[in-house]
Amino acid sequence: MDAMRTDAATSARMARVRNRDTAAELAVRRELHRRGRRYFVQRAILPGRRRPDIVFPRAKVAVFVDGCFWHSCPQHATRPKTNAAWWAEKLARNVARDRQTDADLEAAGWRVVRVWEHEPATSAADVIEAALGNADGI
């Protein structure tokens, strides 16, 4: 019975996890906007649910602001102790899907930029602007 309560609690907690408009995404978007860059948010490029967090269609730059836990940041990744094998497999699938998304976008002629949620917004915006070059955002 106790395990069922834990599962329900975990399920409820996971349902509250945001998949867009996270604090890190909003900070990066605000910084890009402050710099005069215009972009689309969560615009579909590939079929399916794999949508970049920030999209610059004219420049063909797709930006992902990856969460340290969900995308296994080499500096900040943590591994849950409860149901450890399931979580290890889940997080490995996330990383594999990220690599496949990168490859699919690159094959379609897009530049992919991935920044970690722990990076300062100004640093992330610098990396994004380097990928954009002199191209107009939208």
From TrEMBL:
InterPro entries noted in UniProt: DNA_mismatch_endonuc_vsr, Restrct_endonuc-II-like
Keywords: DNA damage, DNA repair, Endonuclease, Hydrolase, Nuclease
GO molecular function ontology, one term from the record: hydrolase activity
GO terms under biological process: mismatch repair
Homology family: Belongs to the Vsr family.
Name the UniProt record assigns to this protein: Very short patch repair endonuclease
